[in-house]
Amino acid sequence: MTSSSPLLSVRDLEISFRTGGREIPVVRDLSFDLSAGETLGIVGESGCGKSITALSLIGLVPSPPGRVSKGQILLNGEDIVTAGEDRLTRIRGNEISMVFQEPMTSLNPVYTVGEQIAETARAHFGSSRAEAWDRAIEMLKLVGIPSPEQRAHNYPHQLSGGMRQRVMIAIALVCEPKVLIADEPTTALDVTVQAQIFDLFRELQRKIKAAIILITHDIGVVAQMCDRVMVMYAGRKIEEGPVRSFIRDPRHPYTRGLISCIPKLSRDPSDTPEPLFEIPGVVPSPADLAELKGCAFAPRCNRAINECQLHSPALTPLGSDRAVACLRQEEIPA
Amino acid sequence: MSVTDTTPPVAATAGKPLPKPVSPSRQVWQMFRQNHSAMIGLFILFAIIVISIIGPSLYTVSPRDMVWMPLTPPGQSEYLLGTDYLGRDLLAGLINGGRVTITIGFSAAVLTILIGVTIGALAGFFGGRIDNVLMRVTEFFQVLPNLLFAMVVVMLFSPSLINIAIAIGIVSWTSTARLTRAEFLKIREMDYVKAERSIGAGNARLIWKVILPNAAPPLIVVAALSIGSAILFEAGLSFLGLSDPNAMSWGRMIGDNRPYILDSSWGVTFPGIAIFLTVLAISLVGDGLNDAINPKLRQR
Amino acid sequence: MLTGLLRKLANAVLLLFAVLVLNFALIHIAPGDPVEALVGEMGGATPELIAELRESFGLDQPLYVQIGHYLGRVLQGDLGYSTYYDQPVTHLIAERIGPTLLLVTVALLWAIVIGTILGVFSAQRRNSWISHLVTVLSLAGFSAPVFWIGIMLILLLSVAYPILPISGMTSTETATSTIGYILDVAHHLVLPALTLGLIYLAFYSRLSRTSMLEVLETDYVRTARAKGLPKRLVIYKHALRNAVLPVVTFAGLQFGQVISGAVLVETVFAWPGLGTLAFESILRRDTPTLLGILFFSALMVVVMNLLTDVIYRRIDPRIKAT
Question: Which CATH superfamily groups domain A1-95+179-263?
Fold first, then answer.
């Protein structure tokens, strides 16, 4: 996978927001690659910059106040950051699509779901109304909606949350994009529906062969779905690697914390359950980060030493396919 | 993404002594003070009120007597703004009319708020059948074209200042009632209200001491703006000839001078500017209050 | 859907019934009854004549009988008799309703169309001159008395630059052709419709801006952009359709106030509609006519509300389902 040139390559990305006359970076020094057919998980607490990174990949950072202030986002070698609005319009939904977190509000209430799928096909393929409508019904069938011919005439409010998210996925996949970004696609749904949606993702990935970027804060989902994981904290990448080593041997204290947050089930009912682990404190705000010299996680880290407060650790390669940004990573026992 | 979130993380403030709490009204005032147009509005409003109160005793020309040649343009006599079709001093009319206009504006607004808040609060607090009946009543008053209804009331009961204020109050309260009801419905379900109820607070206490103070901010804005509407309303009524025959008001001046606009544009222009400035000032103050109470809506 | 509309219809009938009861009550609560007024106009009468008059008006009967009679008459299309015009009130209203509807419709239409366009544009460019114009307009429109704006426009466009007629609906010279007549009325309509519309332009430009700003922030607009629709479609298909929903609601709800505004504007421009009739009946103390206009206006408001409801059901699919 690493030998061929990546499908999507993010280089030294910085995204900033202007607040109160200052421009404050919320994502910094972010680089990562995505190969065709691969599933990359991006993990982190809310406010770590995951969602805004995802939006930047389709040129939708809300502007003003935000903008991509440094770096490149290369899709097959073409920079999305400098691409014009016309070009972006052709990329969005066609080469890169996105499924959002909120299926209840992400569909337009005044148009039928069939129309909302069909118009995407019309916009990108210039299909006729009849062709696009047939395509919409085909897509509804593909995402597992029963009696798609009738459902296509439904308005979003007539569908359940899970159904709506399936429609969102149908919209995202109607043009068979190369990259599908899913930003916490199941957070708003019931657990059983969650499982169905992820099954659908896997199945569709086989059929359409899209690369997926899955943004989540659920380690369990990552373990099930992803090939590779990238952990973000306070706007930076702090650890990256294949999903197995990530789960088995997390190197960054923050990653270890995230993994220990998962409740462990014991087979023996007489066992007293371990108290649930919790990382103390909260993610510092971007404004505070701008003034922070050291590691952003240091204030919450139980292994922090004085040096951690002084300079921010660089991302260091660890073996052939991993990297971590922690001064003390070598000292941390496996 | 909470990129605009400037509150420091909990960890940073822990240990430090908490800053002295600022009272909400003070906070609103601090926000308000930074709003230039609202402060200008407040200043204009203040000036108009002061002139209306002490003006008549400083400028003693009678607004009702003929003092000069009728239809004298401004600046051509000792009467600065000229005279109207009966040779009455326009400036005296403006100064004296302000008193009437503002008094009716304020008292009608008070009545509007009183009726609106009472009905809205009862409907929102008790809900059910009471809500149903009160909302029907509200709907009924919304169906009546407000100016026509006020015209009927004033005509049937003689156009005294009190009757005019009452008529304006009766036709203007519906939107206040709807807003109050919505606020009450929302606040009624809050935990602190349930807590008060659980420790045995009576309905009166819940309505007055618990819910109303929390519903007050948007109501204050509406109250401010309803003074402006009441002034416009009064102007409309007196323009149609429904004004107290013993009192000079700005709207009446426009109505009186309208047939003579071809000979004297100033007779209608100045009172109109007076109304416009007063209501504009009130709108600016109202918008400023709204922004100060509700900073999130600022860009709208 | 049908049951929803039927319920609304029943409610509307109930409301109109209440307006009639109010009308009846107003006549009775008001100091001085019609007979006294009539006697006053005649310059006095003998007690026998007064009693006879009372009987002829049905005033000697108990209240519930009187109200029954009153309602019965209204149901037969009798809104009373104007003593001043010496005509049934319904005739007067029928004569005047056309000009009022013309004025109100034209004024509301241009205000809503231009207001929505201004609001939509200014929502997209928050600091552009259009946005500032909307702010200034909405402040000025709310603060200036509509009748005064009318007079100022007369001074500007009929006196200083005499391009538009001062008042009335037609010129005194009779038009020779239908087209000539239409053009003449249109010429006279410009100023009153401009005046009445300005107030609502202020309102609708602000309303549609607020609404558009809200809609532009919604998730479904983000979805529309994320799926690669051209900007034109994002704004005019996905955002606008949702942003006009409150505009439609208010257009219906505000109709009563538009009629009130029309009273003032018609009076300023001597436009021969219901408003001028209302103004004249105040001058003549012609209570039956004024109450007739009040009832008829309420009827128009109720009809408008029902119409809005129907339109709303067409453009917002969420209502249909419930």
Answer: P-loop containing nucleotide triphosphate hydrolases (3.40.50.300)
